[in-house]
Amino acid sequence: MSAPSEFEISAGGGPPAGLVLRGLRYAYPDGTEALSGLDLAVAPGERVAVLGPNGAGKTTLALHCNGLLRAAEGSVQVGEVELADPTLTEIRRQVGFVFQDPDDQLFLGTVREDVAFGPANLGLRGEVLRDRVQDALHAVEAEHLAARAPHHLSGGERRRVALATVLAMRPRLLVLDEPTSNLDPAGRRELHDVLVRLPVTQLVVTHDLPFALELCPRAVVVSGGRVVADGSTADLLADEGLLRANRLELPFGFDPRSVVPPR
């Protein structure tokens, strides 16, 4: 299969959007503080990995980016729009969230129906809707799966189709929660090749440190609900003391200096 052309961002989406999180504080109902004044800025078009141990606040951070969680203190800004009750719908149109489990996003009879679901709810019909679905499937190299039932797909195929359901909404920023979870090496490589071509801002929450290095030029380490390190992914992963202090571990024998940094 030939590689798809670069995904087109429609006028309804616009160019990639930056993300600014300022002083986010959030505690769960049991009183556990997940975010403790977290600050993070992501420039339009950047791919940034969010790294950290379990319980560090990574997924909580991600869920704040499109208002799935709302901070007790602090602010979230996507492009020129600050998250608030009146702007929640607009923020969710601009920020596409790809969940860790693809089955959370695939629930209809065919891949085509799943990818069409979001745009159809926005009122798209006919040829415009068909083109939107076609573009999203083409972007993830899944056009040949359109008539298939999602539950008959491989893990890697389901992951890419779940991504297509989000791309069909033409987001300006993608937030991906553990995108390589349960993927085999081939599925992981296919997903990398899709993501690296997408001209949208990407925030990638992952425990997969080699994947972060291959995809994201920049990374942040989150611990205790704050960003404790921010820099080039290669530099952070070469810092053995930083990894040890934050319970991060590279695969045995993996040398981060052996990977050509992404652009």
Uncertain stretches of 5 or more adjacent residues: 1-5
- Counting H and I runs of at least 4 residues, what is the number of helices? 9
Q: Report the C-alpha radius of gyration, rounded.
A: 18 Å
* CATH level-four homologous superfamily name of the domain at 35-105 and 172-251: P-loop containing nucleotide triphosphate hydrolases
What fraction of the residues are assigned to beta strands by DSSP?
A: 15-25%
Indicate the overall shape. globular
Q: Can you tell me the CATH class of the domain at 35-105 and 172-251?
A: Alpha Beta
- Can you count the beta strands? 10
| N-to-C series of helices and strands | EEEHEEHEHHHEHEHEEHH
Widest beta sheet: strand line-up: 6-7-8-3-9-10
Tell me what the CATH architecture of the domain at 35-105 and 172-251 is. 3-Layer(aba) Sandwich
Question: If you had to describe this structure to a student in words, what would you say it looks like?
Answer:
By secondary structure, this protein is an alpha/beta fold. It has a domain at 35-105 and 172-251: 3-Layer(aba) Sandwich (Rossmann fold). Helix content is 32%, strand content 22%. The chain contains 9 helices and 10 strands. It has helices at residues 58-64, 88-94, 111-121, 126-139, 155-167, 185-197, 209-215, 233-237, 240-245, and strands at 19-27, 33-42, 47-51, 73-78, 81-82, 95-98, 173-177, 201-205, 218-223, 226-232. The strands form 2 sheets. A 6-stranded mixed beta sheet has the order 6-7-8-3-9-10, with helices on both faces. Helix 3 packs across helix 4. The protein starts with 18 loop residues before the first strand and ends in an 18-residue tail after the last helix.
